[in-house]
Amino acid sequence: MTSPSWLQKLLGDRLTLGRTARWVMLSAVVGVLGAIAAWAFRAMIGQFKEWFFLAPMGTLDEGLGTFETRDLLILLVPTVGGLLVGWLISRFSPDSEGHGTDSVIRAFHRAKGVVHARVILFKSLTSALTIGTGGAAGQEGPVAQVGAGIGSSLATKLGLSDRDRRILLLSGASAGIGATFCSPLGGALFMPEVLYRKAEFEGEALVPCILSSIFAYATYMGLAGHHTAVEIQPHVLESFHFQPMHVFVYAALGILCTLIGWVYVKVFYGVHDVFGKRMNAVPAWIRPGIGGFLVGLMALALGPFAGEHGVLFGGYGLMEDAIAGNITIGVLGVLIFAKILATSLSVSSGGSGGVFAPALAIGALIGGLVGAGAAGIGIDGIEPGAVALVGMGGFFAGVAKAPIASVVLVSEMTGGYDLLAPLMLVAVLHLLLSRGWTLYNAQVESQIDSPAHTGDFVVDVLQSVKVQDVLGEIRPPRLIHEDVTLRGAMRIVSDSHETHFPVVDDEERLVGIFSLTDLRRIFLEEIVEDFVIVQDFMREQVVTVELNDNLHDVQRVMTRKGVSAVPVVDAEDPRRVLALLERNAIGRAYAERLAELKGTAS
Predict the structure, then answer these.
(1) Pairwise CA distance, residues 78 & 293, whole Å
(2) pLDDT at 520 over 70
(3) CA 109 – CA 98 distance, rounded (Å)
(4) Is the distance from CB of 101 to CB of 177 less than 8 angstroms?
């Protein structure tokens, strides 16, 4: 065994720190490191944008506006960027492919919280290249995976358990999201919530995620300065208020978010299937280049129609312009589906980038469309920008199955706290109507379906079931008198289905027990079968249980004593046998109770 490192000595179990103090220190470290990684990642994206867009094309707009000769570079830049990303992923880090949040979810459930340290570098590099060369992807998913890699690597370095590694994995991801979105609470809630399709949180990770997100937010603000992720003019924000009469507008928004959310998920994974399964003749590293070329082609095609509004980059400009009301209703409708396709081509082609920010942008476009339509038909007092802001959170809540985190995130990143009520309405409505699909395929239904919680619920389920609860499924015991001969016992056993037989005295009070195994030792002794009686070969030390004992304790005792059946006795008369409880009855009770719990949960 290697000697503990200085880091283990400082933060590990070897210090006489309480668990709470240790988790505060670990969460703080992960938060600070996650914020530094997020800041460096953002700076890397900015540098790539300057090299590949601002310098050669003189623009950082998401749309191309009018055609010019230099605009033809838009076909070359995303293509080259995609090829570089594909080569880096194929050559050095296959884990860096795709959108980062799904990879974190998968690592939590199925990889014991392990994210390889190389992901920290290569996910940052490949995603920054994707976004910096015009890919329609976001930075939040990748920075979540980078933060998760920091947390996972720290846990591995300290020699922590798989359970602790999973918690630090989520803490690191929360740090990245909280820092990038400038949303400490939303970042803290997102990772514990997004693990499951149903309304569940990873409760044990919640406090460490909050702590790491707070430290990440504070560190990031110190490095980048205070700002909101989506900049909205104060006078615009002050005009946003929820009026009860507009509830039907927001209900319509929730329904439209559901329909377009289904399209988003189907297109995203449909493109993934095309590039992953139907293009086997094309080397994997070339496929992101093809996706980049098609995104560039879309940007060129949209330029004359959409102007400075387009599908390039993460979509923050679309969010701000949709909320400010700067996009016409026709352009809004086209950009919704164009952004869906562009994001799918950038990421599902085998590239690297997030789907978080694009989903928020799509939601803002949907909200802007509904708001403009409502204003166009004369609904009094409706603010299209307010509906666009609500669309951001409502759309992402349903496709990600994270309603609470989405509402908080959008409120924090825009400052639109007055719209909490419609945000919650659209988020919950979208969630209820979209149970059949999700943007994150690595999600599981609930904790009970997660490999990370294998065994956690066996104890809980059996502890909630008493022996008396299963008595109706147990046959009355076949009691045998202690003076019955071996021949008589063998005759009784041959007519019975039991494997264990309680032995009683004249008053039918328990004095012992024997099993088929005990009988097998002497059943060939034909000479003495009329002389040997049950009392001679029974076991006098009998393990018994009572009606109020829970099945977890019963199973534990049976395992420790090496028996497969135990007599159930009266609590007031421990020698009066009521039933015989066999191990398979416990198994049936567990399966039935589990099915009952799943049925209730669904």
Answers:
(1) 6
(2) yes
(3) 18
(4) no
CA gap 405, 341 in Å, rounded = 26
* Domain at 458-601, CATH homologous superfamily: CBS-domain (3.10.580.10)
Our measurement of the distance from residue 482's CA atom to the centroid of its chain's CA atoms, rounded to an integer in Å, reads 60
Residue 161 has pLDDT above 60, yes or no: yes
Q: Give the end-to-end CA distance of the chain in Å, rounded to a whole number.
A: 47
Give the Cα separation of 417 and 403 in Å (integer): 16
Give SS3 for 515: strand
SS3 446: coil
Give the span between the Cα atoms of 259 and 430, in whole angstroms: 9
Residue 339: the pLDDT is 97
C-beta of residue 389 within 8 angstroms of C-beta of residue 414: yes
Instruction: Pick the closest to residue 504 from 585, 573, 583 (CA basis).
Output: 573
Lowest mean pLDDT among 356-360, 418-422, 528-532, 553-557: 528-532
Residues carrying CATH 1.10.3080.10, the chain: 6-224, 234-451
**Is the dihedral angle over the CA atoms 566, 571, 574, 575 positive or is it negative?**
negative
| Among 127, 124, 220, residue whose Cα is nearest residue 178 | 220
Which stretches within 443-548 are classed as H helix?
A: 456-463, 486-494, 516-520, 534-537
| Cα 101 from Cα 169, distance rounded (Å) | 11
Instruction: Point out the least confidently predicted range of 161-175, 273-287, 494-508.
Output: 494-508
pLDDT tens digits, one per residue of 312-346: 999 999 999 999 999 999 999 999 999 999 999 99
CATH number of 234-451: 1.10.3080.10
- Residue 460's pLDDT is 65
462 vs 593: CA distance, rounded Å = 8
Measured at the CA of 400, the angle between CA 403 and CA 444, to 5 degrees, comes to 105
Q: What is the pLDDT of residues 217-230, one digit of tens each?
A: 999 999 988 777 88
| Strand pairing report for 480-481 and 500-504 | parallel
Q: Quick: pLDDT tens for 112-139.
A: 999 999 999 999 999 999 999 999 999 9
| Opening angle at CA 172, ends 169 and 173, nearest 5 | 85
For the stretch 57-104, pLDDT in tens is 888 889 887 556 566 788 999 999 999 999 999 999 998 998 889 999
Whether domain 6-224 has CATH 3.30.70.260: no
Residue range(s) occupied by CATH 3.10.580.10 in the chain: 458-601
Q: Which residue in 358, 379, 412 sits closest to 251, CA to CA?
A: 379
**Residues 6+ away with beta carbon under 8 Å from 207:** 23
